[in-house]
Amino acid sequence: MSDITEILERANFQQIRAFLLGGQECANVDNRSYQKRIRDIEKTTLSMISEKFSDLNECEVFEKIFFNYTDILKNVYMELGLQCGIKLTMQLIKELPKE
Fold it and tell me: Which of 34, 64, 65, 75 has its CA 20 to 30 A from that of 4?
């Protein structure tokens, strides 16, 4: 039973994500919340955009394109996550003992 406990203790979404997306282990697990990770990179990105664009209108156009891009990424990755979750659930159900 301790083997199962050890496996569950090692289970980490970031490690699984790194393996599925890149075929490798995640070297550093980020302990920040999802919201904090998103806010931090958003803040850094928007700060850099503001520095690079002196024209406010140009900056707003670029920000709009950037946010459209990130929205599409979020949607696609959510759909992929749901598909992976459903596929894994179906595999687990197949492995359940038959009564």
Answer: 34
CA distance 43 to 36: 10
Whole-number Cα distances in Å, 96 to 7, 16, 70, 85, 89: 19, 23, 39, 17, 11
For 47-85, write each residue's pLDDT tens digit. Answer: 999 899 889 899 999 999 999 999 999 899 889 888 988
Question: What does pTM read for this prediction?
Answer: 0.60
DSSP assignment of 8-32, as one string? HHH--HHHHHHHHHHSS--SS---S
